[in-house]
Amino acid sequence: MKQDLTWGWAFGCVAALAIQAALMVLVAPWFAGWVHRLAGRLVGEPRFPAGGRWQEIWHQFRRPSLYGRQDGLNGVFCALALVLAVLACGLVPVFTLTMPGFPAPGMLLVCTILVAVGVLLDLPQAVQEASAAQQGCAAIVADALLLPVLTPVLLLTGAHDLVAFLGRLHVLSPITEGAPYVLAGVALFLATALARRDEQTASATLSGPDRAMWLLAADCMQMCWVTLAADVAWAGSLAMPGESGAENWLTQCVEGLGLWMFKLLVASLMLAVLRMALLPAGRRARVRLGAIFLLGVLAWQVTSSHVAAPPAEPENHNVEDENTQGYSTEPAPEGEPS
């Protein structure tokens, strides 16, 4: 039986959102370092341990920043990107949903914030000179086109917010009724898996705290895309508050946290394999946008046809009619056998 939103449940939802945001920010550099190391193992190259990403970020925070003529606004771009990335970490569910009636964002808002983070991360390269500026502008165009390409996926949510949408998917099996939403999750996953962003080139002009904020924002953005895709593909791993008591909800949160770690492990393997694809920047952007749009259209079409199709009426066989078929239902006259 569902419970109403009370002050206790509201406080629990706020605490859960804060824990989820902090957890994603802390795990994001580890996840990025693990994917980088795993991709190196697949191609036979030595890479730094997974924890080396956090060490690099912390080292850059302690270094002074060096600015050139075109680097005056780089600190503003990186700071805004980090703020929006941390905000997105608080909006994407990790191991639990919030109570019905608790304020929740829509899928469009979350995707818009993530696209804005990607554009802000491309701006430091776009303000440079010569070929670096061309590459940065091309990256901005590729990231800006991501939101229109995600339109079929956004249509799946309808007028529902993200929590209500995932709550509706919570009871669906990813193998049967929820299979179209698995395609939508793969489309969201490709948004970061095929991202056209060379860290060494995009952040080459950054140093000190600006570079640290750039790296942390990029890791948080990747973590948000991966987690959002995993939530859409399999929403049954998320805890549902209000369905039972607080103790059962906490138990579901622990289980959801373990399942989130499992989904990150699977996503890291997929990211490492896709990073091995050697494609030019322009072709990679076209493949990324085309694959996301086609998967979104396919998921939307299958879901729409499934909803529009009228349910099949079961055949109602009347056993009594079958047994009495060919026999008269009128009472037999007296003296005659029925």
From TrEMBL:
* Keyword terms: Membrane, Transmembrane, Transmembrane helix
Q: Any transmembrane segments, and where?
A: 6-32, 72-96, 102-124, 136-158, 178-195, 216-237, 257-277
Reading the lineage from the top rank, the first entry is Bacteria
Q: What is this protein called?
A: Uncharacterized protein
**Does the record bear Transmembrane in its keywords?**
yes
Q: Where is the region Disordered?
A: 309-338
